[in-house]
């Protein structure tokens, strides 16, 4: 184990401390800059993927030390220890990208991640680090640094997630980048015998005027995928071709309209409002057209965390999200990276358990997923998270 403590003669010049009064004596002497700026490459063996960096001992989440509290919040469960015992260690993993056929490692694309775990470290040596991606009792799982200056090494950087506001410029960049993916320009319908099928006209909510208008073939629109639940539908104002939303629509729709406007678009398609629920003939035609409605949408907004239409979208219109764990210092910030949309997270979502939403997700070319911790983007070329660089 390498000594990552500052020299006793120069503790403050070498250390990354914003306020020494917030740190215990041990944490004052830890050289965070040396730990999180090391750019060494992993050797070409799976066992070198993990390095035990620093022994942290027993951690107290109620400690008066800011760094001790951060490490305590980032504790991960080691499934090899039953029951969990022993001191905690700060460990570095080098995540390696897989390319080609089989397990062929591309060592030109590796990046370090840090984790706080129990055990000696020997029990981790024969496992790929991706096995340890589900935290227990912790929002964050991996630790990532942010730096004031860019690093040429292949580092994955953490991004701060504001608990009351989505990063709309980042969402716009995700969609703009996806527009350049050749595979994302086509939809499954382009390859189906039904691609020449005449589409019935559809209506969408004009998010500026709140009127429900006919969407022209060359107009772009976003669709909404959400759990309707047992909520009653607020009455739509007007009749036939002169309909508009009530002064206050259901929460998830109000939030989705905000997202559409922030992304620079005009129209939002929502089944409850854009399908005339009182016209059975129109309703039947639109339900039969559902595949093309979601295929042709520029993107689909997913209310991933909602249990009904009153829940809204986390981080939109001031609604709060789960706060991101972080430690701030004068030279470097450490951020807890959430584990993402793992199977465990997906299983807990009502949205993933519905047949209609499964169809909507499958047919959509782009998904903007609003979860309790952050926003995610999914397309045919990859996926991105609000809390880290691509």
UniProtKB/TrEMBL annotation:
* Cited InterPro entries: HET (IPR010730)
Q: Name one Pfam family in it.
A: HET
Where does this protein have coiled-coil stretches? Answer: none
Q: Provide the Heterokaryon incompatibility domain boundaries.
A: 221-360
Q: What is this protein called?
A: Heterokaryon incompatibility protein-domain-containing protein
Read off the lineage from the record: Eukaryota, Fungi, Dikarya, Ascomycota, Pezizomycotina
């Amino acid at each position: 184990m390498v000594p990552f403590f500052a020299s006793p003669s120069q503790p403050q010049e070498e250390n990354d401390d914003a306020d020494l009064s917030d740190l215990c004596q041990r944490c004052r002497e830890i050289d965070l800059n040396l730990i999180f700026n090391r750019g060494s490459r992993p050797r070409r063996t799976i066992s070198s993927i993990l390095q035990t960096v620093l022994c942290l001992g027993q951690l107290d989440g109620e400690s008066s030390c800011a760094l001790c509290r951060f490490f305590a919040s980032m504790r991960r469960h080691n499934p090899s220890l039953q029951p969990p015992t022993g001191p905690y260690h700060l460990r570095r993993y080098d995540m390696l990208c897989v390319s080609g056929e089989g397990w062929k490692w591309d060592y030109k694309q590796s990046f370090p991640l840090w984790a706080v775990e129990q055990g000696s470290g020997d029990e981790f040596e024969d496992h790929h680090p991706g096995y340890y991606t589900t935290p227990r009792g912790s929002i964050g799982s991996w630790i990532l640094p942010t730096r004031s200056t860019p690093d040429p090494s292949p580092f994955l950087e953490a991004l701060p997630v504001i608990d009351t506001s989505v990063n709309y410029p980042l969402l716009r960049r995700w969609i703009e980048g996806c527009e350049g993916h050749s595979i994302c320009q086509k939809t499954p319908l382009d390859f189906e015998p039904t691609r020449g099928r005449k589409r019935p006209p559809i209506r969408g909510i004009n998010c500026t005027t709140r009127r429900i208008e006919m969407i022209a073939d060359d107009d772009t629109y976003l669709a909404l995928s959400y759990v309707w639940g047992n909520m009653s539908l607020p009455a739509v104002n007007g009749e036939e071709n002169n309909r508009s939303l009530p002064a206050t629509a259901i929460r998830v729709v109000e939030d989705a309209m905000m997202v559409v406007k922030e992304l620079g678009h005009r129209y939002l398609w929502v089944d409850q409002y854009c399908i005339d629920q009182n016209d059975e003939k129109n309703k039947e035609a639109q339900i039969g057209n559902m595949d093309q409605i979601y295929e042709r949408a520029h993107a689909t907004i997913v209310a991933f965390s909602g249990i009904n239409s009153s829940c809204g979208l986390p981080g939109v219109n001031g609604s709060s999200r789960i706060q991101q764990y972080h430690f701030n210092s004068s030279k470097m910030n450490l951020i807890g990276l959430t584990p993402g949309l793992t199977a465990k997270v997906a299983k807990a979502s009502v949205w993933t358990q519905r047949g209609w939403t499964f169809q909507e997700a499958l047919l959509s070319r782009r998904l903007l997923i609003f979860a309790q911790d952050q926003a995610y983007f999914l397309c045919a070329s990859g996926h991105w998270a609000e809390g880290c660089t691509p």
